[in-house]
Structures are given as C-alpha cells and as structure tokens.
Write a structure and sequence with these properties.
about 40% helix; 2 domains; 4-stranded mixed beta sheet; Rossmann fold
C-alpha cells in the first residue's frame, strides 16, 4: 500500500467533525500529535496494511459559506480545542484542502439545514441532476490527484427521518425513484448512490438515511464496493452499549433509563428542529430493548445550549430492580468535546475500509459495528461483542 494514494471525501466538509479530522490528519502527518483516540493504532491492528497519514488527500462537499481556517479558528477560540502549535502549523494545509471543496446539494434535507446555505444556493436540482453533479465532483477529484480509491464519509447535519415504507428494496426500484420529482430519498442517499456507482466506499457517520435501504446496498454489491454506518457512537450511547449488557448478565431488571443531552455546536442547533431531532433520538434509543431483551421505560432528550460550543454533557439516570424487588439507581455524567471524540473514529473508518477493499469485501461492512449506534447488518448492539467482531476480522490468518 505504500505507493498508493487515497482520497477522503467529506460531506459536510467544513463542519466541526470534518474540520477537526482534517486538523488532526495534518498534525499526524507532521508528527506533532500522537495517536491517542485512534482505534486503528491499537497493537492488535498493527499487522494490518493500514494506510499511512501521508497517503490521504482530502476534498468534500459543503453547503455553508465559510472556510476551513475560519471553522478551525472558531473551534480553537470557542471550544478551547487544539493547541497553538497545531493551529499555527496546519493553516496552509487547510487553505489547500479548501480548494478541493465543492457546493453540496439540498435535496430533502429539511428547512433547518436549507437555512444554513446561502440564499442563492441551487436547491432546484432533481435527484438525477444532484447525482450527476456529485458524480462529476468525485470523478474530477479522483482524476486530479490520481487516486487509487476514494472513501466518501457523510459528516453532514442530521436530516429528517424518511418513512421506512418508502425505502427502495431493490436497485431497480431505486432507479425508478430517482426519476420522480417526489423522490423521498434525501441528499445523504444521493451522495451514497453517486459514490457507490463510481465504485467508491461510502460511510455514513450520521443518523441520516444514507445507504441504509436494501436497494442501495444492492448497488454496492453490483459495483463490487462497500458501505458502513450509521450514526457514530461516541459518548452516551457508547456507555449504553457497555452498561446494558452488564445489567442483562447480572439479571438486574432495568425499569427506566433516562438520558438528557446538552451541547452547543451546529449539530445541536439543527437538532433543535423536531423533525431533525426525531432521527437522532430514534438512533440513540433503540439499543436498550435489543440488548436487554425487553423494553424499559425510556426518555432521550437533546437540547441545544449555545454557550457550550462543541462540548456536550450527557446525564443518565438508570432505575433498576435487584434481589427481593429492591429498587436501585445508577447515574453517570459524560462530558466531552463532540468533534474531538468523533474525529479519530473518522480516520479509523477510512483506514479499516481500505483494508476491506484490499480483501475484496463488498456490501455492508458489519465488522465496523462497534463504531455505530445503528450498525447496518449487525447481530449485536453490545460493545464488547462488536469489539470482538472487529478483532476477529483483523486477526492474522494462517
């Protein structure tokens, strides 16, 4: 792999997660940051042919009128992330990557996300026209940098949910939908279709629909490529996937589980819209029943608190029943920087997906389930089970 060049194409390329990932990639390239937080840097994966940091070229789509330098400086100023040395060293690379970022599309993203784009943004494209524009941008990026493969990663704001009864169950049905002005598929799915049609890898880091429908998964298999998702597991839900199996294994009955989340970044602002919030709440709330085998009373709240900037706090209250019907409680508080929890996972997913490509794996990459709240094709939501699956996938073969 040493002579190869790989592209990472971000959807939402100037958002907090993408900006933090790009700054981190630059710092890793310059060896002014270590690999803390990177799963792929663990010793159990050291034998894999993982891409080096200097093999990646970055581009993307963005709907907002801003720059990477502006967004990085905002994170540095408002959220107290990065340090002075890293900020000073990455500016030139941020400017260079900005030249690779193209205007995104706005099909079925919801009014709250549409309001983030300039008033003169072109939002009249049909699904076919949107796909054609995305495809042209991806092909130009691959050709310009003579890339061996491109991993397209969706980091954009959460779209409103799509009625599951409208999801296409075959690629033929998907193609028919694309010719309809009432096509229910959102922008995240159009990006997925464009990437997969070109044989690129698509990863959905968000709760948006993306490549979830069976009809889009079929496209991946027809084109001999792969996808993974959805909704990265970085904080409160990560804790749920660790703690819920503990209650199940000890035969302690969880009667109720309440989670309250507050954060102040752009994603939090978008999630203030109830239609966008519905996708996120569903993704955060469905795990418990699957891991416990029954459905306790649950409540998940997500609130935007502007002053917190990119920092988030999750407070969970777990009411459970023990021996002789004794009620007990567990509470925890998770506080972390949203983008800095996510950024290393983005790089991990790109590296692991490239190994999967080298192995000839197609369709949904189920071994990446530990990274997601709603992993496509997963058999278990328990973090320990998912981690063992990743390690088994990576284990050396005799």
């Amino acid at each position: 792999m040493s002579a190869l060049r790989f592209g990472i194409w971000f959807i939402g390329a100037r958002g907090g997660v993408a900006t933090s990932t790009i700054v981190g990639l630059s710092a890793l390239r310059q060896q002014i940051a270590d690999e803390t937080g990177l799963v792929s840097a663990l010793s159990c994966f050291s034998h894999l042919p993982l891409a080096r940091w200097d093999q990646f070229v970055v581009g993307g789509h963005e709907i907002r009128d801003t720059t990477l330098r502006v967004e990085a400086e905002r994170l540095y100023r408002e959220s107290r992330v990065f340090d002075a040395e890293i900020m000073a060293s990455c500016g030139e690379e941020l400017d260079q990557i900005d030249s690779n970022i193209r205007p995104g599309i706005l099909w079925n993203v919801g009014q709250t996300i549409r309001n983030l784009a300039p008033e003169d943004a072109d939002d009249q494209l049909s699904p076919r026209e949107g796909i054609a524009r995305i495809t042209a941008d991806l092909e130009a990026f691959r050709k310009q940098y003579e890339l061996d493969h491109v991993v397209v990663i969706n980091l954009a704001s959460t779209e409103p949910p799509v009625d599951a009864s409208t999801w296409p169950t075959s690629w033929a049905e998907t193609e028919q939908l694309l010719d309809q002005r009432e096509c229910p598929l959102p922008a995240s799915s159009l990006y997925a279709i464009s990437a997969l049609e070109l044989g690129m890898t698509y990863i959905n880091f968000t709760p948006s629909l993306g490549a979830t429908p069976a009809g889009i998964d079929e496209l991946a298999r027809l084109r001999g490529t792969r996808h993974a998702g959805k909704d990265a597991k970085t904080g409160e839900t990560l804790m749920k996937s660790v703690l819920a199996p503990m209650f199940a294994s000890r035969n302690l009955e969880v009667m109720s589980w309440v989670g309250h989340n507050i954060f102040g970044n752009l994603d939090g602002k978008v999630l203030d819209d109830p239609s966008n919030k519905a996708s996120k709440v569903k993704s955060k709330d469905h795990l418990l029943e699957e891991m416990l085998g029954y459905a306790p009373q649950t409540l998940v709240s997500i609130e935007h608190i502007h002053s917190l900037a990119d920092w988030k706090t999750a407070w969970d209250h777990i009411h459970f029943r023990g021996f002789l019907n004794t009620p007990m409680m567990l509470q925890f508080t998770w506080q972390g920087c949203d983008s800095l929890l996510a950024a290393p996972l983005v790089l991990d997913l790109a590296r692991f997906a490239l190994v999967a490509r080298e192995r000839g794996e197609t369709g949904a990459l189920t071994f990446l389930g530990s990274f997601f709240k709603s992993p496509i094709g997963a058999d278990s939501q328990a973090f320990a089970d998912q981690t063992r699956l990743l390690e088994a996938w990576a284990a050396p073969t005799e």
